[in-house]
Amino acid sequence: MLSIQPSSLGELTGRPRTGMSETEAAARTWDGYYAGSFTHAPYTDAVVFAIKALSRNRTGVVYEFGCGNAQNLGFLRSLFPDARLIGSDVSEAGLAAARRRYEGLELFANGETLALAPASLDVVIERAALQHVPKPLGQAYVDEIAEAMKPGAGAFFEIANTDHGHAALGDGGQDPVFGYRVFYSLGEIETLFAAFDIDQVFERRRTLVRAPDPAGSAPVYNEACFQIYLTRR
Ligand SMILES: C[S@@+](CC[C@H](N)C(=O)[O-])C[C@H]1O[C@@H](n2cnc3c(N)ncnc32)[C@H](O)[C@@H]1O
Known about the structure:
seven-stranded mixed sheet, methyltransferase, binds S-adenosylmethionine, SAM-dependent_MTases_sf, Methyltransf_25, methyltransferase activity
């Protein structure tokens, strides 16, 4: 399922070309992050969503976009040995960390497409990944994910909103730890998920998250995000 491709989608990103594709640039940033960090927070809201879905369908097929070191899928594996758990990320370092720690996950490095089988997924989760992707490319990913979901399948997305502490940077701004960022309004969320029924949207605040900064200071992340619960039409 390996799908790394040179960028042919410059017009999708709205960013000037630098010679490096969007996904190559993201991979470089995130490889650096995972080289020095192993986040591990089992009960994320994305995981809770997947637990509810898998408890009704223990052999279901779950896909996580931007799974990083697979902290979410790894925890699900420990609860649901018979589920098929698929994850992708641009960061090979994140995926390598996942493979060292967890067994039985189907992990692949994605480029600007995902190469998922049509109508094959029962559950989709995404947590804090699309907020690091240029919006036109994010829309292309969501459209492809929608095609890969079975009708009636459920999805959970968690995406920084325009009240996020770094929103003042604007779309395409670079924060000191996580690099490239975009921020979504409620109207943009409706457009992004036009192929879905939107069941619920919560605004979640994660105020005063402290994160190490390569420059040595300790920025405080006044994070706000939308948590979006969806059903594929
Ligand atoms: C804040 S981390 C979240 C990781 C994971 N979802 C979790 O909950 O631990 C954001 C992730 O998005 C990934 N990412 C950034 N751009 C991406 C892209 N174009 N395609 C896939 N993943 C991407 C990063 O490599 C990183 O692992």
